[in-house]
Design goal:
- By secondary structure, the chain is of the alpha/beta class.
- The protein has one domain: Alpha/Beta hydrolase fold, catalytic domain (Rossmann fold).
- 35% of the residues lie in helices and 18% in strands.
- It contains 16 helices and 16 strands.
- Strands 1, 2, 3, 4, 5, 6, 9, 10, 11, 12, 13, 14, 15 and 16 form a 14-stranded mixed beta sheet that branches.
- Helix 6 runs antiparallel to helix 7.
- The N terminus is likely disordered.
Amino acid sequence: MRHLSLLPAIFCFFSDATASFLTVNSTYTTNDSIRYKEFADGELCDGGQKHYVGWADIDQRHIFYWYHPARNNIEAPLMVWLQGGPGGSSVVGMLAEHGPCLVSVDGNSTKFNPYSWTTAYNIIYIDQPAGVGYSYVDEPINTSSYPRRSEESALDFLRVLRLLPDAFPELAGMPIHLAGESYAGRYVPEYAAAILEYNSRIREPDRIPLRSIMVGNGMSNMGEQWPALYDTGCYEHHGIAPIFNETDCSAMATAANRCEILYEQCQSNPDEIICIAAGKYCQQNLWDVVERKNVDRYNRNNTCPPGDCYPIVDDVETFMNSLEAREAFEIKTQMNQTSNHWAMTSKIIESRYIESGDFFTSSVPALTRVLEDPKVEVLYYVGVHDFACNSIGVRRMLENVKWSKRSEFRAQSMSSLPWTLSHGECAGMTKAVSGLDLVELNGGGHLVSFNQDTPPSRKQC
C-alpha cells in the first residue's frame, strides 16, 4: 500500500521533449516543481556511482542541487550539505572537500575520491540561497527578488526538502542529517529549527525526518567568535606562537570586551540596527586587525601568501564554467538567462545578508531549540588551526548555550580522540553529553576535510 503514495507524482510527471531534464510537479502545492537529469558514473563526476543534477523551482526562485547516491550502501541515510559565505556554493564542498569526485588540478576533469562521505551517506549538495552558484531568480536585476535573511531562506529550504522525494521516491522517509561549514553555522541551526517548527504543525507521516545537524568550523554567534580572535592571536594556541604584537593585543583586549557587551545587547534586542552596529564595531576593531596581518585567516599553519592558499577553488570555477559542464547542465535552456557565470560566492547574496544584519545575528536561539529536541543529535567539529571560526570561539559558544544540559556539558573535560594522524599526532580532542558532541581536530583549518586528504588511523593516542 505504501507505493500508492507515489501515484500523485506519477500522474504529474512529464518531460520536455526538447531537453533531457525531467520535471515533476509538487505533491504538496500547485506552485512548486523539481527538475532533474541523471548522469552515469564518469559523466562529469568520476565518483563511482550515478548522480543527478537539477533545480527545485519554488515560485520565482530556482535552487540548484547535485545529488549523489551512496556507494554500495542501500541503508545509508541522507546528508544535505550547505556551504557558508554567505553566498558560498556547496559545489565547492563537493569538488574540493568530500564529494565522490574531486576537481583536477587544471579544472578540466574530476578524479575519484576514495575518502568521500558518500561511502556512508546519500548526499545532496544544495546551492542556496537563491542566487548562489547556478541557483537563480526570474528577475535578477531586481535585488528584492533575492532573499536577505536566514529566516527567509529557511522557508525556501523547507520547500526544497519537500520536493526532493517527488523526484527521488527512495528519499521519502529517509533519515536526514543537515550539515555545513563556516557561515552554515548560521544556516544549519536556523533551518533545523524551522524544520522542527514545521513538523510540529503537521501530521506524523508528512514530517521531515531530521535526525542530526553537523556544523564544521561554524560561525553560529559572532558575539563569541570574534572576541576569541584576541585569544587565538595574542596567546600560544595549539603550538602556534602569538601573531599580534603588544600594541595590537592591548587594543584587541579592550575591543573584545566591548564586542561581547554590544552583542549581548543585540541578542537581547534582535533589532537590525542594533546588531549591525555591534557587528561593525567588532569587525573594525577585531576582524580588520587580522585582515591587516600577512596570515592565512583560514589556517594559521599555512606559509603561503594570503589569497594563494587554495588554488583548488579556481579549479572548481574553471570546471563549473567549462563548456562540458555548461552543456551537460543545459545552462542556456534551463536557466534562460543571458548572465549565468558560475562563481564560488554570490556577491549579491553576500551583500544582502550583511546589509540586513543577518551576518551579525546569532543562531544560538535556534540551536537551543534543536538541542532540546530529543530526536535530533548535534555535532560541532572544528579544525584547531582556523582563525576565522576558531576553536576557542566555537567551544565558548557551545558552553554558553542555555539549555537543559548546559551545566553537564560545561563540566565535561576534553579527552583525546581514539585515532592518530599519519605522522602520529593525536587526531584531536572531544567532549560530549547526550545530544551534543564537540570535536576539535588537530592539523585542520577552516576546511577540515580539505586539509586531511587521508583518514586518521585507528591507533590509540
